Every structure is written in structure tokens, then in C-alpha cells.
Amino acid sequence: MFRCSACGHQVAKWFGRCPECGEWGTIAESAPAAAAARTGTTSVAPSSPAVRITEVASDSASSCPTGIAEFDRVLGRGVVPGSVILLAGEPGVGKSTLLLETVKHWAAQGKTALYVTGEESAGQVRLRAERTAAVHENIYLASETDLATVLGHVEAVAPTLLIVDSVQTMVATGTDGVTGGVTQIRAVTTALVSLAKTSGIAVILVGHVTKDGNVAGPRSLEHLVDVVLAFEGDRHSSLRMVRGIKNRFGPSDEVGCFEQRADGIHQVTDPSGIFVHHHESDVPGSAALVAMDGRRAMVGQIQALLNDTQMTSPRRAVSGLDSARVAMMLAVAEKHAGIKASSKEVYASTVGGMKVTEPAADLAIFLALYSSHKDVAVPSSTVAIGEVGLAGEVRRVPSVARRVAEAKRLGFRHAIIPAGSEDEELPRGIRISRVANLLEAQSAAVSRHDYAQAPF
């Protein structure tokens, strides 16, 4: 049989495009499903009786901290014994380095960890561990690709944490299909999930991603595991982010920040400093914002530049922002704020490689464009939060109180927020300007007050 890894549709022969969902290159060979059991099967006595939910100990699945605060933040306070975690990311983003850092902290707590690699030799892993200072006597290494041999290593070592790098390289003997295929990945994952549930060993699987950024393999792989994490990063930046996609033991919208360095990967507890450039004085064309990445508020900076040009079609260049929203802001600013950008080159970008796509960045984009066009600096102690509509109105956005609190913590003294935002949860000690449209926003942004020294 041939099965589509995207929708699960089965066909009798191979197709380049799935006839059910229309995806290309997702049809792969798989073993035929077993015949369905006959109806009327006799019951079997359970090995253990069902118990009331009130009789189950609430601490039976308590989390064990890994020792890395940012990693524990995404996992939900730590690793739960008997859980299976899938960590997926692009090649070279730092998955293996992060897991070596994890097993180092795990071993430092007096626990045993087994690191199984199917892509490297044990000597190569040892060299990387020496470079990142991740050598500990409680860490065991095994270079294996056979699943049965891996299970034998688990019985011999009896670890409390098992790392499999990666699940696409493992082979289940007796299962049809090529290595890394749909059938093999499903069989390997099912066996490791069964091992985790019966023995209480926490298992972390490393997974590959497709060119679209999705987890490679069948979609059922994400349903089998307990936690799915995406490790993201830009090769032009040292910033790395672990983003929760699925989590049965905690929130699925948390984000952990790390920085890739020559001596390994380090956690970044306050990433806002990376996304804001320090200026000795206020400069035109710059505005600060507070973006929400999952449940985390991060302060960033948007810069814009408008230049006169003689070209018939002026250039528009955008980096780190949604180009469609920048184009919309240019149209709204020209209609309702008198900013004539049709004969100007427009450049807009974020600082530090930050990527912002949420509508709450609209007001900061507008203020950066307005500041560059009028050559008037927005004070660096001012932060702008709000969505802008096509009629020039400033709309409310979620989590305003959390955004303003983060801005205050970093030393900002003025926040421009949409009119109608809730007042009860807003922090004290920071000046709040509520604006209903773009004209009020630009007036509030460039008005001068007796501020103390600006934070940036």
C-alpha cells in the first residue's frame, strides 16, 4: 500500500500528487493495515483494575527540571517521567548542542542519561561535548541505528533520560519500508513510546523538518508523542528559539530563547536587549514596540527610511516585518496622515533579526514611517502598541497590560496604547497615552515631556 503522510489517504500505487489533499511528494510506501478484528470478540480480564480519578496520586507525573530555565519554561516546569518529547528543527540550528547541554545539567543532578546517536560516531559527540564543556561521568554514549540494540542499551544502562538523535535514522528490524520512511518512523516511535510508558524513562526524540518547516514523517508521529517542540533560528543570527507546538503537561504557546556561541548554546533570559539598538540620542525613523510571541512579551525596535528618488517605481524593501502590512500602513499613512510616499524609496526593518507579524506592530510601523518622513525623532523612552485599521483608527490588541508591564520593566516611561484599553490591570509608574486615530498617535509620540534619561 501507499499512504499520504499529510492526510493519511491510502492508494494502491504511487502518485506524485495525493489525489485526496493535493500535496506533492507525500505518497510513500507503507505496510498494509492488519485485518480488522471480528465483531463479538470475547472480553479479556485487565491486568490492573480501573480506579477512581480521585484515588490517583496527583504527584505521580510531576515534572523534573532539566536545569535549563528557558527549556523548562517551554516544557512546563521540566521533563515528566515517562513522557516522549519530539524536538524538530532545520539542519545545523543547534538541536544536538542543546540536547548535550540538557544531558549535562541532567547528569549534574546525579541522574543517568543515555545519548543515542544515529548520525555521528561516539567520538564525534565526545569532541563536541568537550568543546561545550558537556562531559560528565553520568552521561552514556551509544552510536546505534538498530532499535533492538538501542533497547538493549537501555536495559544495560537503566537511564532516567534517553536521547535519540535522530528518529529518522533508527531502523526497526522486521518492519517493511526504507529507513526514514513512514512505516519505519511510525514503528520506531511506537516502540519508544511504549518503552517510556512502561519504564518511566523520559525520551527526547530529534526530528527533521521538511522544506516547508513542518516535522518530517507521518502526521501521526506528532499525535503519538506527548510534547512537540520546534527549534527555530536564522543562520545570519545567533538567536535561537524553542517554540512549543503541542504539550500535554503545560502551555503550548511558550517560547524559550537561546544564543548560539562558539562554546555552545546559552539561554537568554531577557531577549529584549537583543532587539533594541542603543543610541546616544534620539534619532528619526525609529520606534519601539512590544510584541507577543506566544505568552512572552518582547520589546523590539522598528526602523524606517524614506528617500527621495527619480525612479518610476520606487523600491520597497522590508526585513523582519510582514511586507503586506507595511504596504497597507503606507497607504493608510498617505490617506489619513499626509505622508506622501509614492515618490520615495521605503525601507523598513526590525533590529537584531526579530520577526514580527502580528497586527499590534502597526502603530510602531506608522510612527517609524512618520518619524523618517518628517525628520522628527520619537523619544526612545516611548513604546507604541496598537493595530491600525484602513480608516486610520487605532484598534485594541490583546495582552496590553502584559506588554506595558514589560516596557516598564525595561525602563520605558511612556506607552502609547489604543483608546478603550482596560485600565485596571495597567501598571503604575509609566505615562499612558490613549489614542483613537493616527493624528492623535503622532501628536502623542512627538510631544516633549520632562523625561529622565532615555533607556536606549
UniProtKB/TrEMBL annotation:
Keywords noted in UniProt: ATP-binding, DNA damage, DNA repair, DNA-binding, Hydrolase, Metal-binding, Nucleotide-binding, Stress response, Zinc, Zinc-finger
Every RecA family profile domain range: 60-209
Species, as recorded: Gordonia neofelifaecis NRRL B-59395
InterPro entries: AAA+_ATPase, DNA_repair_RadA, P-loop_NTPase, RecA_ATP-bd, Ribosomal_Su5_D2-typ_SF, Ribsml_uS5_D2-typ_fold_subgr, Rubredoxin_2
GO molecular function, one term: damaged DNA binding
Family, as annotated: Belongs to the RecA family. RadA subfamily.
Domain notes: The middle region has homology to RecA with ATPase motifs including the RadA KNRFG motif, while the C-terminus is homologous to Lon protease.
Keyword DNA damage: yes
Region Lon-protease-like, annotated ranges: 345-456
Motif (RadA KNRFG motif): 246-250
Residues at which ATP binds: G89, E90, P91, G92, V93, G94, K95, S96
GO CC annotation: cytosol
NCBIfam families linked: sms (TIGR00416)
UniProt record, GO biological process: recombinational repair
PANTHER family assigned to the protein according to its UniProt record, in alphabetical order: DNA REPAIR PROTEIN RADA, DNA REPAIR PROTEIN RADA-LIKE PROTEIN
Protein name according to UniProt: DNA repair protein RadA
Keyword Iron appears in the UniProt entry: no
Function recorded in the entry: Plays a role in repairing double-strand DNA breaks, probably involving stabilizing or processing branched DNA or blocked replication forks. DNA-dependent ATPase involved in processing of recombination intermediates, plays a role in repairing DNA breaks. Stimulates the branch migration of RecA-mediated strand transfer reactions, allowing the 3' invading strand to extend heteroduplex DNA faster. Binds ssDNA in the presence of ADP but not other nucleotides, has ATPase activity that is stimulated by ssDNA and various branched DNA structures, but inhibited by SSB. Does not have RecA's homology-searching function.
Entry-linked Gene3D superfamilies: 3.30.230.10, P-loop containing nucleotide triphosphate hydrolases (3.40.50.300)
HAMAP family: RadA_bact
